[in-house]
Amino acid sequence: MLLKGDFPTQEGDDLMNKLSRKDLLLVGLMLFSLFFGAGNLIFPPFLGQSAGVNTWISMLGFFITAVGFPVLGVVAVAKSKGLYNLANRVNPVFASVFTVLIYLSIGPGLGIPRAGSLPFEMAVSPYLPEYFSVALARLLFTAVFFVIAYWLSLTPTKLVDRMGKVLTPTLLILISLIVLGAILKPLGTYGVATGNYKSSAFVQGFLDGYLTMDTIAALNFGIVIALAIKSKGLEDEKAIVSTTVKAGIFAGILLILIYSILGHLGAMSGGLYGATENGAQTLTNVMTYIFGQPGAILLAIVFTLACLTTCVGLITSCGQYFATLTPKLTYQHWAAILSLVSMVLANMGLNQILGISVPILNAIYPVAIMLIILAMVNRVINGSRAVYSLTILFTATISILDALGQVGLQFGFVSTLLKKLPLYEQGLGWVIPALLGLVIGGLYEFISSKQTESVSDYLAE
Hints:
Membrane topology: Multi-pass membrane protein
Distance between the termini: 37 Å
Function: Component of the transport system for branched-chain amino acids.
Number of helices: 19
Subcellular location: Cell membrane
Keywords: Amino-acid transport, Cell membrane, Membrane, Transmembrane, Transmembrane helix, Transport
Shape: globular
Strand content: under 5%
Helix content: over 70%
Family: Belongs to the branched chain amino acid transporter family.
Order of helices and strands: HHHHHHHHHHHHHHHHHHH
């Protein structure tokens, strides 16, 4: 079953087979900007600063979870003609619950409010005069921010032009200025590796890629990319999937390039400044060293643009989905509701929202990864419901128990046993159970098919 609106289609007699190179470039740029939020801007520099001489080993792990899985996620949703349809390969009930949780947690529950509050915290709050109320300043900033985000997301068919032609190129030009400044005024040599980056740089980089949450966001953005491609006149479903793959590859290459630059800058800043508390401070050090005080202004603009593009993508994807669940509320209504609710949450109780949403995201993330992997090998496993169901069941059980443990809920012997799983200490305790579920599901499918063949042969005699 495919929920109406989950992967929108258009009827028409004039079907185009491919986009022009210009339109394909614009769609790719739009997809890049959807992924590249404030978190994507600050995590690579912090990784570089922490990994030091092991930066590139760590970056390889980071690329897998911060680029590889997100790009594959967009492709998986396109091939499946929607997130609900993809999740329905497991079970209809799972599909409904998982889809709603994905849109709520990465949307109004975390992603959108965070996108509105982060640019204020990083780019405005530190420079406010002492006499000016921080609460009032935050309210004014988020009000303007979400009005702009609402306006940009109001007409999804115009996203390609607004983001691909204006916002993303502007963001890339500003990042290019940072790169040029670093070339003209080098920071120095790489620092030393610290913490887990000393002994397990690759695994730590892999885990750091989790922090971007782009794998989950990718499952949301499938609907946005479909709308964007259709707005350019492409209606053939196979051509849409092919175009999505090309746009995903382009966005992935661009993300790897930008992440590499930011990681390199962070590694050099570690040699110059030493350890910092977070990636924002690392990036601030880099900008101040290269540009002086104007660097703070440049960084503020980059932060705001990065958050704005991601926010628009999340409002659009969530609005499109929720509109399919409530016939009386149109997409435009949902865009307004999401913008207003997110503005309120960005000003009130964001820490409480994070306290609830982050464990949910940690529980969902491994499930999203395995769902994407299964979608990529769907032909190999012949779309087996047994393989999908057992793999996701084993993965979800471990990831949910782990998430509950993070909020202080322990289950005695079960929790003790959980901690003995291979890779648990590295945050990957779900991997072996997931593979076990895949193997058991595969064996069940193989035995069932053989029994079916035997019965068919017997009846044919």
